[in-house]
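for the recovery benchmark. C-alpha cells below, seq after
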C-alpha cells in the first residue's frame, strides 16, 4: 500500500449553476461598508444583482463564459457571509445578453451617504469591471438560492447542501 493520496478533482456542470462574479470597489474616501460585492444574474438580458435567497435565478452559464460542459472548481471563498465557488478558466462574457455591472449597490454605502444612493446605483452599469492583472478572478457562482448543489468529486456525483 502506498501513501495516502490527498489530491482530488472537483468539477461541475455549469448548466446547473447561476453565473456570478465578485468585483473590488476602490474609492478615495471611506464611503463603503463593503468593497467586494457579489454580482449575480437572475434573468438574462438584465444587469446582475446582489445574491438573493428569496427567488431562485432562472439563468445558467452558457458558452459566453468560456466554460465547457464540465468545469473544474478552482476553490471556494466566503464573501460577506456568502459562499462563492470560483470556476477555473471562467471569463466575463462580452455578449450584450449578459450586461456587466460593477457592483455599485446602494446598500453598500455607509449610512452617512444615504442621499447619494440613486447616483451611486446609476454607476452600476456605467462602470465596466475589469480582470485583475494578477491572481485568480472570482468568476463562478454564489451558493445561494437553492437547497442543494451537484458536484463531481473524482468523477462521482455528489449533492451538497449549503446552509
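predicted aa per position
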Amino acid at each position: 500500500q502506498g501513501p495516502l493520496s490527498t489530491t482530488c478533482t472537483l468539477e461541475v456542470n455549469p448548466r446547473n449553476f447561476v453565473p456570478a462574479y465578485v468585483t473590488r470597489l476602490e474609492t478615495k474616501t471611506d464611503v463603503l461598508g463593503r468593497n467586494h460585492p457579489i454580482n449575480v444574474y437572475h434573468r438574462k438580458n438584465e444587469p446582475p444583482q446582489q445574491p438573493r435567497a428569496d427567488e431562485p435565478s432562472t439563468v445558467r452559464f452558457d458558452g459566453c463564459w468560456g466554460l465547457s460542459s464540465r468545469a473544474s472548481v478552482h476553490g471556494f471563498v466566503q464573501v460577506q457571509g456568502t459562499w462563492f465557488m470560483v470556476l477555473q478558466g471562467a471569463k466575463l462574457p462580452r455578449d450584450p445578453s449578459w450586461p456587466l455591472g460593477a457592483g455599485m449597490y446602494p446598500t453598500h454605502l455607509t449610512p452617512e451617504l444615504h442621499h447619494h444612493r440613486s447616483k451611486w446605483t446609476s454607476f452600476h452599469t456605467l462602470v465596466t469591471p475589469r480582470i485583475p492583472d494578477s491572481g485568480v478572478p472570482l468568476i463562478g457562482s454564489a451558493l445561494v438560492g437553492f437547497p442543494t448543489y451537484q458536484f463531481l468529486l473524482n468523477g462521482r456525483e455528489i449533492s451538497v447542501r449549503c446552509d
